[in-house]
Amino acid sequence: MTDLTDAALTLAKQGVLGIEKHERTRERFKELAQSAANMLSAAGPVSVDEVVRLLESEFDVWVPQAIVVSDSGDHIAWLENRRPEIEFSYWRRYAEWLKKAWKPSTVESLDEATDQILELLEDPARAGAWKTYGMVYGQVQSGKTASYTGLICKAADAGYQVTIVLTSQHESLRHQTQARLDKEFLGFNSKLSRNPDSDSSVIIGVGTLGMKKPSICQPVTTQVSDFTTAQFQGTPVNINEVSILVVAKKNARILENLQAWLSNFATGEEESRTIKNIPLLLIDDEADYASVDTKRPKKGTSQSDPDHDPTAINKAIRGLLELFDKRAYVAYTATPFANIFIPDETKHPTHGEDLFPKNFLVALEPPSNYCGPEVVFGLEDPSAAEIREPLPITRPVDDHEYWLPDGHRKGYRPGKQLPPSLVEALDAFILATAVRRVRTRDYGIAGGHNTMLVHVTRWTDVQGEIARQIEEHLQGMSADWGDYGKAGRALWQRLLTVWEDDFSPTHEEIADRDDVSALAGPPVSWEEAEEFISVILEEAASNVKRINGTATDVLEYQSTTPVTVVAVGGDKLSRGLTLEGLTVSYYLRASKTYDTLLQMGRWFGYRPGYLDVTRLYTTTELVNYYVHITRANRELMDLTAAVSRARLTPKHVGLRVLDGKGNLQVTAATKMRSSQVMTVSLSASRAETLVMRTDKRAQSDNYASLNRLIQAITPADPVPDDKLEGAGRGFFRQHVPPQVVLDFLAGFLVSPRVLTANPENLIPYIKSQVAKGELLRWTVAITGGASSVPLKGLDVSLVQRRTITHSRVLDRECEVGVLVSPAHEAIGLTSDTVTAAFNMTVEDFLNNGKGREPKRASGDSLRKLRDPREGLLLIYPIDPLASKIKVPDPSIPIVGYAVVFPHSDKAEKVRYRVNQVFLDGLRKAIDEDAEGDS
Question: What residues contact 264, with CB distance under 8 A and at least 6 apart?
Fold first, then answer.
């Protein structure tokens, strides 16, 4: 890039940042590029097209607006009034630092979101006592740490004097958080000095930018030391004179000691001594972990009862908060289910208020370049015109039992032979690292560290033995690679086979997909990758790390030289700890606490230029669990948005969850230990069988039900072409009587894991609505697909669907990431209605900052506009052979269905009972003793 082009780009970028996000079109980019070129014309010609191309590259990531649910109470808006007098020195340094690696639009969105959160806190200069309790949640590895780092910067700029950040119970995570805040907030290395003015050599991160120094903030903890009272006996640290930062583990003793030290600054009567006029910001990272009071009050009492004794860490956090008369508590988490069910009116005479986020909830949607579980598992994308398939990066593991059986205990000695799946995973890690090295060398793509995660047991002694086995295996590979004899040739052939059978076709598939192609790097040949294998094997063999509470190994990513590391661990790896350059994960922990599964998903996140070489080796059961909790998280995000639009308060989110549907409701039930009887509203909903039985009886009986349905609807009126836009092939009938639909559902066998779409729930609702003059006529669609096999008796091809577990089945079931094709919810609607629904969708995308324009009308919009008298039944006859589903009779299709209900003002909630076996399984997982990882 020439200096003149660079100058024009800088000018044009400022122009882009000054216009609304939805106005950032190619046409506007061209106008701004032309304007910049005109301004610089005296210095020489500028290629407007090149500047436009560079602008599109800079602004190709979009970030949806944060969703805010708040209860203003006695909150006084303050930020806009005080903004002119706040210098924001900490924030400006941090924003400038982020621009080194972030796209401008993501820094801009972080600025906006942290402004929103800061405004929800109280003005630190506000007179009198005040308190704020809030929560921010978003996807795993999507940027929550960046959010609270930005919030800390702005809060310190505004006048919050004491900042406490609570991490999990592990020192490695506390160290990592402290190191990040040293670099991105303080600007100096706390490990070397608490005063950067005394030694310039300790300056790091934002401190190296040469920008205006903010007022000093004293770190009370360091990268090598959590809080200890002894450190501060007789030291001159005085929170009345200097701001402080504390990064502490969630350890009751440490937090009690911190409270005892801080109480030295409290004044007032003995029973009501508080720290006055020193505003506290307490950030509770991974707030669903250890912070929630899980003790049940005695029968007939509540958490406010004087005899109720909360859990130790919950009590310690509340004690810290009660010590300050001006305080703000902000919880950060990716799995907020426990937090939204904290009792919202607890007022304990000794321990004060509980940690319910009564003042605000903020939901952070991830940027468009985030590769989360919805992308990995191919779940529904509301902006896509076609079904989004699962990413081809998941590899099933079913060969580990002889080596490391499920349910093994402490002291177990794994089999001497690594399972073939783990051997393949290690091979994949070596090849993935080689591909990244080639792309850095030949294409200038930023390289960085390379990490493999092995997470197979909670027992630390077993982790140590597994690490030793992996170390020996990699040492053997390194020795064999330099051997030109039989062993060397066998290893060469093994890696080449993985390359040809896996890496080449996977790169090709991902590079050809519109939704993720930008995250795949350029193609690399086997010969190019082979050049790096020897050195990578040496690095990996010498860098197998044991990451747990008893091992001394530490993950160090401070070096500018890329490291290649295999991290073996358990819980310490699962919560909060960032694994940089994570490419391959081998994960078996099948029985770990259900609701923390997403927290363990370290493989979600940002993979620029190397998504195609990432791999997840895990069990079918775990993938099924991940899909369930991912859908529940999506439902919670959608529900929060609905509560926000209705201008309701945080406590209504929990209430709405109880009235919710499907995945979200079951998750809530397991959290609340509630009754198995649930209620659900089916108004404006779509109930679908994403899980389908594959046993002989279900396959046969459901196919017979489909044939009876076809026979019953054949005499009905065909759906006219103008109501079938985009529907594709199929057999479509309208004005079908509701009894035909009821008969079909009554004879259908579903999995016990099908909740909302269970006929036992659908049939009473349909009957109830018919009695009220609704759902009197139905459109029924037997959909066709891409299979070469026709449905017998109809000129309709069977449907192909990818199972989320890549052809694996569990308990004679299969599960698909997506069943309903995006265009099918519009079947039976006029083109005018579909257009109106599309316009509603566009407006929703613009209002909620979702960036790119949708390619179709959303299901929500279509359901709102569908006539309440008309229902839609979609049938999906799935080809088991083409879809790689194991069934007793491959000649008989697996039948799935979706029932689409219009919005109804007359809808009553349906009560239903969740399958006891399924719910007991979830509860058992939640109640499981988590011993062994400490």
Answer: none
Nearest of 426, 420, 376, 423 to residue 398 by alpha carbon: 420
Distances from the Cα of 286 to the Cα of 157, 282, 334, 339, 614, angstroms: 25, 13, 7, 11, 25
Main-chain phi, psi angles of 113, to 5 degrees:
-65, -40
In angstroms, rounded to a whole number, what is the distance separating the alpha carbons of residues 374 and 379?
A: 5
Q: What's this model's pTM, rounded to 2 decimal places?
A: 0.75
DSSP 73-90: TT----HHHHGGG---HH
The single residue listed with the structure tokens 């407007």 is 48
Beta-strand ranges (E) seen in 294-415 are 326-333, 347-348, 352-353, 360-364, 394-396
For residue 475, which phi and psi values (nearest 5 degrees)? -60, -40
Q: Residue 460 is which amino acid? A: T
Q: What is the DSSP string of 446-461?
A: ----EEEEEE--S-HH
d(CA 263, CA 165): 18
Please state, as a whole number, how many other Cβ atoms lie within 10 Å of the Cβ of residue 770.
17
CB 175 within 8 A of CB 554: yes
Residues 6+ apart with CB under 8 A from 446: 440, 608, 609
Question: 3-state DSSP call for residue 745?
Answer: helix
What is the number of alpha carbons within 13 Å of residue 15 lying toward its C-beta?
A: 22
CA proximity to 652, closest of 249, 88, 198, 70:
70
Alpha-carbon torsion 615, 619, 622, 628, what sign?
positive
- 812, exposed or middle or buried, with CB in 10 Å at 0-12, 13-18, 19+? middle
Burial track 302-335 (b if 16+ CB lie within 10 A, e otherwise) = ebbeeebebebbbbbbbbbbbbbbbbbbbbbbbb
Q: How many residues does the chain have?
A: 934
For residues 237, 242, 248 and 252, what is the CA-based torsion angle, rounded to 10 degrees? 60
Cα 222 from Cα 240, distance rounded (Å):
21
Q: Which residue has the tokens 């995660």?
A: 453
* Residue among 817, 394, 776 at smallest CA distance from 619: 394
**CA–CA gap between residue 273 and residue 914 (Å, rounded):** 50
**Number of other residues whose CB lies within 10 A of the CB of residue 695:** 15
Q: What tokens were used for 25?
A: 């079109």
Contact by Cβ (8 Å): 458, 589: yes
Question: CA angle, 141 as apex, 135 and 144 as ends, to 5°?
Answer: 30
d(CA 819, CA 803): 10
Measured CA to CA, the distance from residue 583 to residue 598 in angstroms comes to 17
The mean pLDDT values, 10 residues at a time, for the chain of 934 residues are 82 87 80 91 88 79 84 93 96 95 88 96 96 90 88 98 92 89 94 72 90 91 86 74 95 94 90 92 91 85 88 95 97 85 86 93 84 76 63 90 89 94 97 95 82 89 94 96 88 97 95 82 94 95 82 56 84 62 82 49 74 90 73 74 80 59 47 46 87 92 96 96 90 96 94 81 91 96 93 92 58 83 93 94 76 80 95 97 91 96 84 41 35 33
CA distance 344 to 653: 12
Backbone angles phi, psi at 364, to 5 degrees: -100, 115
Please, are residues 799 and 784 in contact by the beta-carbon 8 Å criterion?
Answer: yes
